[in-house]
Design goal:
The strands form two sheets. A four-stranded antiparallel beta sheet has the order 3-4-5-6, with helices on one face. Strands 1-2 form a two-stranded antiparallel ribbon. It has two helices and six strands. With 152 residues, it is an alpha+beta fold.
């Protein structure tokens, strides 16, 4: 019992003495810092619309969804990618970069794709995430009408 109490006390003292925790943007923060006093230089820093990691995420998620639920369509390549909005709803909201372009599917057709890169909405809030919609293939009407709700 004494050993367990001593170990708990030592761990508590060590935490208060200056161990640091890793923040989402790679900056180290003391655990006793108040959240409102923290400033993160990386806040609002999102990858671009044509970033290979972003397009790869859209491709892999689209292909997985199509393969699992709907059929043989697969995304092959993108063109005319451009940003249509950045923080369109104001600085007080979660930073989002809105993008639009065309995706070539394996049926030989180009379709409009609208997507947004969103900060801190990835796994455990540690990274960015992508929200996307391909025009004409929003079968559950999640972003109806015609992917309008995926745009700013």
């Amino acid at each position: 019992m004494r050993r367990a109490l001593l170990r708990t006390a030592l761990v508590s003292i060590a935490c208060l003495a200056g161990f640091v925790v890793h923040a989402a943007n790679g900056r180290f923060v003391h655990p006793l810092d108040r959240a409102e006093n923290r400033t993160f230089a990386m806040y609002g820093s999102l990858p671009g619309c044509d970033d290979p990691a972003v397009l790869s995420e859209v491709t892999s998620r689209f292909n997985a969804r199509e393969n699992t639920y709907w059929g043989p369509l697969q995304a092959l390549s993108y063109d005319r990618i451009g940003q249509i909005g950045y923080r369109s709803w104001g600085a007080d909201f979660i930073p989002r970069r809105f993008c639009s372009g065309r995706v070539l599917l394996n049926d030989g057709k180009f379709r409009r794709v609208d997507y947004s890169v969103r900060e801190n909405l990835g796994l455990f809030g540690l990274t960015w995430n992508v929200n996307w919609c391909v025009s004409g293939l929003d079968r559950l009407r999640t972003y109806a009408p015609d992917c309008k709700m995926a745009r700013p």
